[in-house]
Design goal:
Elements (H helix, E strand, L loop, with lengths): L3 H8 E9 L2 E6 L7 E2 L6 E2 L6 E6 L2 E15 L17 E17 L2 E6 L10 E3 L3 H9 L7 E6 L5 E5 L1 H6 L2 E4 L6 H19 L10 H4 L9 E5 L15 E5 L9 E2 L9 H8 L7 H12 L8 H16 L12 H19 L5 H21 E4 L2 E4 L4 H15 L24 H12 L3 H4 L1 H12 L1 H7 L7 H8 L10 E5 L5 H26 L5 E5 L2 H4 L13 H15 L5 E7 L7 H5 L3 E4 L5 H10 L5 H4 L9 E6 L6 E5 L15 H5 L9 H9 L1 H8 L9
Parallel strand pairs: 12-20, 12-21, 13-18, 13-19, 14-15, 14-18, 19-20
Antiparallel strand pairs: 1-2, 1-9, 2-7, 3-4, 5-6, 6-7, 7-8, 10-11, 10-23, 16-17, 21-22, 22-23
Length: 713
């Protein structure tokens, strides 16, 4: 029977030469394996970069990952059993390696368990041993009972299966990073598929009485919710065989027969999103825009009645008189212009009086009489000419008081209940511009001039045929139905995955569509928790994250852009989503361009091949020191291989993602240049069809008509 001491002795490959908290230097024995170790029970490649070694101590064994191998010269050879130090002064080679401590391996009930951190560091001269096959698998897999979602296998650990805890992976946010073509999309598809399939196989199915099989149908669907925002249209056909199927939404014209039309009506936008897309100035335009949205959402549309015209006229004159406050209107032609303005005002409000009723009519008539008395006191006529003497400050103050008396007769601060400018209540967005113009006229003064550009932008947005299918669909949809389709119905009955194909969304509103969709998802989960006191676990997946969650750049403008809104909502999801059950998965090929706020909130990473120096530098700052040696392998990772690190994995692990069949892969293959160039694969071109769809039917009809100035034949 082999004793523990003799077993450790048979696995010893060197001794500790120096110890630091982040690096341990090891001097290899002269008879340690040089290529393949046979003393672990199975042939094991050793020494290898990123392989594991153990350093036994009183609490178990410190697990180290090999980060450096090399040969150093010594003034004496290292030979066992001979004390010949100093006899010969020649350079002798000694093999050495550097090891980063990553955890402690413990034995419990004949099972190995890895714990993060090091309880006790080894000392100089302590033995370094190779882990057995069982120990290596325990180090890589973690042997965690909650690791339920298989991701792939570990090539450097006997192809041991790698599984992750979905609560940690999705609940604490995940970033999938790597160069284009490195396999990010396939990794995302494999991860979503594996999570749904694992949940489906783990559902506890109750015993079904004989004859009741039909009643049980559908109850074993996983209550999972994955929402994929797909700006490139890659995932539409990946998940059709999962659970109750995959809900695919696409912007018209539909190219997928299984897809439904994606709509995001403009009435679902909140006031900040309206301000961003219409570029509303914060001081002059945004308050009027917010008031207009409040009125439309509460069905209190302003019309240009006589009362509203009177109010606007009074406010306009008050604005004009402000320039004379404290000084009066003195000197020609100022006094003459002021008298003419007051005279025209008297004519206007006198003309309104026959149509007015009640208290407002009485106030207006009294104001007209009082202001007429002031004007007549300063009016002069001579030789057929008429003019005005100086108006003192007291005269103009009297006029202002009578105008204010008229304005007080209008209802102040009408109560609209709980409706505000952000309430998701339907209204016709086409009337927003006209309603803004009515509000500006009611406000009087120069308000109409301030909002002219705003109303022009809104009219342009609502009349753009490229956007109508998304923001102003022909068929109306309620907020309840939108959430039921995109977030998922009760019990996941309509499928665990929703793919929103945004490949044909106009770029002008692409950021806004993604921002509004994400905000609606987050706020729906917030309200779900408020009403049920429980979370509704949901995963939001964003492809091409560097485009939509880019770094905040100073642009010297107080008006937020749709890109700012998009980054802002994802920063909010990253900070607050976990509290409401919303997990975030980001996929990007340029991590150095991502928002630091979002990236810093990601606690797990799947790192594919990354060759850019800036991206590598950023990632090295995000991960702990003991994993940086493994990151040096990033530039040479093959496709389908990635490094898993973070809270979802106890130790950084190299993972070969499981293979997907052709029908399960995203449509992100590299273009087949050579096969097309050599006519092996035909590529017929019909530019007429493409341009007709691109320009629209009206433009096509115009092309068929004779050109202006041309000859019609």
């Amino acid at each position: 029977m082999t004793s523990p001491i003799s077993k450790i002795s048979s696995l010893t490959i060197g001794t500790v030469e120096s110890v630091a908290p982040d690096e341990i230097k090891v001097l290899l024995d002269i008879d340690s394996p040089r290529n393949t170790a046979l003393n672990t029970g199975v042939p094991t490649p050793f020494p290898r970069i990123n392989s594991f070694v153990l350093l036994p101590n009183e609490s178990g064994a410190v697990v180290g990952i090999v980060v450096w191998l090399g040969v150093e010269r010594s003034a004496y050879p290292k030979r066992q059993g001979l004390k010949d130090f100093g006899l010969i002064d020649l350079p002798f080679p000694l093999r050495k390696m550097a090891v980063c401590p990553i955890g402690t391996l413990l034995s419990e009930k004949n099972k190995w368990r890895l714990e993060r951190g090091v309880q006790s560091f080894p000392s100089v001269g302590d033995p370094v041993i190779l882990p057995t096959r069982e120990q290596t698998i325990a180090i890589v897999t973690g042997q965690d009972k909650d690791s339920r979602v298989p991701l792939g296998t570990c090539p450097i650990a006997y192809d041991a299966p790698i599984a992750v805890d979905p609560d940690k992976l999705f609940g604490r946010h995940l970033a999938v990073l790597g160069n284009t073509g490195s396999g990010k999309s396939c990794t995302l598809a494999a991860l979503v598929r594996s999570a749904v399939e694992s949940a489906q196989t783990s559902i506890k199915k109750p015993e079904i009485p004989a004859g009741a099989e039909e009643a049980q149908n559908g109850q074993d669907n996983p209550n999972a919710r994955f929402i994929i925002l797909d700006p490139n249209g890659e995932y539409s056909k990946c998940f059709q065989d999962l659970g109750a199927g995959c809900r695919v939404f696409q912007v018209p014209p539909l190219t997928n027969t299984d897809a439904a039309e994606f709509t995001l009506p403009a009435w679902m936008w909140n006031s900040s999103e309206w301000a961003a897309v219409a570029q509303a100035a914060p001081r002059a335009q945004r308050p009027l825009l917010q008031e207009a949205l409040r009125n439309l959402r509460s069905n209190k549309q302003i019309t240009l009645t006589i009362e509203n015209r009177l109010r606007a006229r009074c406010k306009s004159l008050k604005s004009y008189l402000l320039q004379f406050a404290g000084t009066g209107a003195s000197g020609f032609p100022i006094n003459n212009n002021c008298g003419q303005q007051l005279s025209r005002f008297i004519e206007d409000i006198t003309a309104y009086c026959p149509t007015l009723t009640g208290d407002i009519k009485t106030r207006t008539e009294r104001a007209a009489a009082a202001i007429t008395e002031v004007v007549d006191s300063r009016k002069w006529t001579s030789g057929g000419r008429t003019g005005f003497n100086d108006f003192g400050d007291n005269d103009l103050n009297t006029v202002d008081q009578w105008i204010e008396n008229v304005l007080q007769g209008f209802p102040q601060g009408e109560d609209v209940g709980t409706v505000n400018e952000d309430s998701p209540l339907p209204f016709d967005p086409h009337v927003l511009a006209e309603h803004l113009e009515s509000l500006a006229m009611q406000e009087g003064g120069s308000a109409s001039q301030f909002i002219s550009t705003l109303t022009m932008r809104i009219k342009g947005i609502m009349s753009d045929p490229r956007m109508n299918g998304v923001i102003n669909p022909d068929s109306s949809i309620s907020l309840k139905d939108w959430l039921d389709l995109h977030v998922g119905s009760d019990g996941g009955a309509n499928g665990p995955v929703a793919v929103i194909d945004l490949s044909l969304v106009p770029y002008e509103i692409l950021h806004l569509v993604i921002a509004v969709s994400s905000r609606l998802i987050l706020e729906s989960l917030q309200r779900y928790r408020k009403h049920n006191n429980q979370n509704l676990p949901t995963v939001l997946v964003l492809e091409e994250a560097h485009t939509f969650v880019a770094k905040r750049l100073p642009h010297g403008d107080d008006i937020p852009s749709p890109a700012d809104m998009c980054r802002g909502i994802f920063e909010r999801v990253a900070r607050e989503g976990r509290k409401f059950g919303l997990g975030l998965v980001l996929s990007s090929q340029r991590p150095s361009e991502l928002s630091e706020t979002v990236l810093s909130q990601c606690n797990s990473f799947l790192l594919h091949r990354i060759t850019n120096d800036r991206d590598q530098e950023l990632i090295s700052r995000l991960v702990p020191d003991n994993a940086r040696g493994l990151l040096r392998e990033l530039p040479s990772l093959p496709t389908r291989h990635c490094i898993l690190l973070g809270i979802a994995s106890k130790v950084p692990a190299l993972v070969e993602v499981k293979h997907l069949e052709d029908g399960q892969r995203p449509e992100s293959d590299d273009p087949d240049f050579w096969s097309v160039w050599t006519n092996e694969e035909p590529r017929p071109i019909d530019w007429d069809k493409i341009t007709s769809e691109w320009a629209g039917s009206e433009a096509v009809a115009d092309d068929d008509s004779p050109q202006e100035g041309g000859d019609a034949q």
